């Protein structure tokens, strides 16, 4: 039985998409009018983010499809595939274009008649819109982190939901990038040297590259079988051991098969010395009870531990 969700993540991604699309159009206009290299980098950044939200919406939609005969554990891992593509897009479109344009401006840029006022106005508007999207991501992260007794930053890095992590990371990078672009344009205006504007573009590109690499790596880890932090494994083991029929948990291996979706394999000692047919019924009953104990637990497979496993560590 696969429990589906994703409503909060969809709202977070939709808010981010609307904000990034509006910001991308405004920054593109400002880039053309002002002639600022930093503003060009920011425009590329926002267009990359807007395109990425499309991938994240696809990720949310496809990963919440119900399980069927072909996929008995559901389609949860599709979220990591599409989120990985979004992270690669951020690296290629956002980071590479920003760095390339900055280097080109640094080597061949010429002083022109820049319109600094329009650049400052657009950056201010962009900061407000990106801030709204960032606050929505923070709101969802704080709610989820509270349920798992974690702080927001730690949960943002560890969460199995790649869409909210991507929005939080991209919006955080966007806010920092706006500050960098503002600094580059301001120094360009004060000194008359186009180098500062070009450096701002390069720094924005490097920032996006770092964020993209982090997101790519997190999606890679979940695609290849993330078991979650030790405290999650400990909590699951303690919950299973709390059932009166369980004398001890000898082995437990959780694995994320989608956002907030966990598949658990465990080996347990049962209370008493029941016959084989009774043991099988007890294990099936425990599996269903364990699955019903938390919405994140999608499916459980339990076995009886071998006699020589007694006394071994649970993982």
From TrEMBL:
InterPro entries: Cation_efflux, Cation_efflux_TM, Cation_efflux_TMD_sf, SLC30A9. Residues 13-216 form the Cation efflux protein transmembrane domain. Its main location: membrane. It comes from the Bacteria. Pfam families: Cation_efflux (PF01545). It is a multi-pass membrane protein. It is found in: Membrane. GO terms for molecular function: monoatomic cation transmembrane transporter activity. One of its GO terms (cellular component) is membrane. The chain crosses the membrane at residues 12-33, 79-103, 118-138, 173-192, 198-216. GO terms for biological process: zinc ion transport. Keywords: Membrane, Transmembrane, Transmembrane helix, Transport. NCBIfam families: CDF. This is Cation transporter.
